[in-house]
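Propose amino acids for all 384 sites.
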């Protein structure tokens, strides 16, 4: 006899761990299957920090989801007693007409979000590590800050287990098929039957969701840690914001305060400058020329940061062509399969609300959250 569940969740990274948690908390019998161990560094949810913010330059349609995500992150911290969110404030810097500044302002105004506009002089006065050009401005948001991805995933796994989900690590799904009113899921160890399947594959979407018809691009991204000239004291989160900085050529970098003590420096990265890869072929070695390019970009806007290079690590983005997410019932299997993928390098701040949405979709077929923007049919060549 195959073990039977209400829902099988495939992939227990950022999104899948949240889905397993929300489903189990609502009383569903949940099996979570993960290819690697708990909280690993081979997908998209590692590296110590992620930016969170509400004045969302990508599209104002994300704002209601962010407001809910902030509430859920707060309760996740409370329920698990883990250090997850540090709302140290954030600046979106660039020319006034840049997407980073103008787009953030548009969302702030549309949703009446607390924010301040700072000119270059005021940016330098408040945040002396930042050296904008005279024609650059910033939107400052006090509620922006950072999230700790490993602690987030660990917290959701902890709560899922507390609510009696079965979580199987090092047990990848090999394939699945429709079976009776639900699905049958195969691993090397076993075959499981379930009413519902929720697939949260991260960078494995091109392999696990070929039938979705979405042209994903998986991208290698690099995170860099530097020891600032003069030490980390000015970079401490009590007085240093997170930042996203777009230059006149449209290149965006983003970075964090020094959150892990004086020895571990501060993290910075290019937002969208990856090269295509696959989870199997990604080059995990970071070259000197890449470190030099990062240091060069910083020399203009945070000149004290690239004092001494400490380390680098790679991570993957799963991009859709329009960089909006895919969260929906699977158009080819609308009765029994739900998908969450294509988070395009900006999904982490949404993790708990995506978990809530996936639980809604799997258990009721619908959700009250606004997810119209994330319908995969907008991208697929194939008819649904
Ligand atoms: C360098 C970097 C910086 C980022 N910065 C930010 C930021 O500042 N703010 C922000 O909001 N977002 C940011 N993001 C994006 C965010 O981290 C991702 O959108 C999010 O982590 C994606 O979560 P996921 O669950 O889709 O993927 P993952 O966490 O990778 O989870 C997918 C899981 O599926 C598992 N899996 C795959 N195949 C199988 C199988 N066959 N069977 C079982 N399990 C399987 C994998 O092992 C993996 O654990 C960043 C991403 C990167 C890489």
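Proposal:
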């Amino acid at each position: 006899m195959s073990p039977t569940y209400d829902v099988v969740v495939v992939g227990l990274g950022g999104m899948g761990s949240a889905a397993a948690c929300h489903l189990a908390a609502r009383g569903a019998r949940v099996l979570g299957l993960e290819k690697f161990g708990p909280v690993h560094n081979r997908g998209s949810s590692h590296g110590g920090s992620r930016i969170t913010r509400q004045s969302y330059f990508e599209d104002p349609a994300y704002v209601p989801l962010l407001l809910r995500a902030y509430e859920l992150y707060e309760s996740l911290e409370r329920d698990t007693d883990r250090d997850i969110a540090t709302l140290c404030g954030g600046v979106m810097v660039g020319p006034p007409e840049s997407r980073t500044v103008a787009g953030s302002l548009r969302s702030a105004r549309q949703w009446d979000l607390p924010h301040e506009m700072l000119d270059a002089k005021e940016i330098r006065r408040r945040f002396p590590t930042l050296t904008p050009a005279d024609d650059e401005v910033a939107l400052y948001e006090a509620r922006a800050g950072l999230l700790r991805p490993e602690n987030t995933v660990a917290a959701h796994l902890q709560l899922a287990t507390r609510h009696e989900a079965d979580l199987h690590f090092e047990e990848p799904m090999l394939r699945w098929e429709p079976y009776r009113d639900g699905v049958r899921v195969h691993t090397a160890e076993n075959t499981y039957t379930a009413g519902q399947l929720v697939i949260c594959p991260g960078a494995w979407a091109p392999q696990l969701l070929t039938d979705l018809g979405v042209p994903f691009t998986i991208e290698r991204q690099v995170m860099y840690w530097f020891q600032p000239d003069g030490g980390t004291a000015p970079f401490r989160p009590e007085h240093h914001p997170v930042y996203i900085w777009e230059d006149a050529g449209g290149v965006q970098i983003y970075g964090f305060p020094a959150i892990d003590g004086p020895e571990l420096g501060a993290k910075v990265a290019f937002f969208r400058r990856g090269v295509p890869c696959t989870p199997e072929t990604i080059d995990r070695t970071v070259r000197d020329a890449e470190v030099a390019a990062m240091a060069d970009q910083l020399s203009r806007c945070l000149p004290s940061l690239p004092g001494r290079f400490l380390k680098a690590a790679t991570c993957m983005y799963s991009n859709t062509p329009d960089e909006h997410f895919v969260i929906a019932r699977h158009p080819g299997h609308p009765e029994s399969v739900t998908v969450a993928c294509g988070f395009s390098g900006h999904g982490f701040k949404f993790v708990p609300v995506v978990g809530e949405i996936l639980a809604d979709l799997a258990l009721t077929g619908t959700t009250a959250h606004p997810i119209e923007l994330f319908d995969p049919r907008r991208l697929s060549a194939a008819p649904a």
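The mean pLDDT is 97. Residues 10-16, 33-36, 43-45, 47, 50-51, 172-173, 200-204, 208, 221, 223, 269, 315-317, 343, 345-349 surround flavin-adenine dinucleotide (CB under 6 Å).
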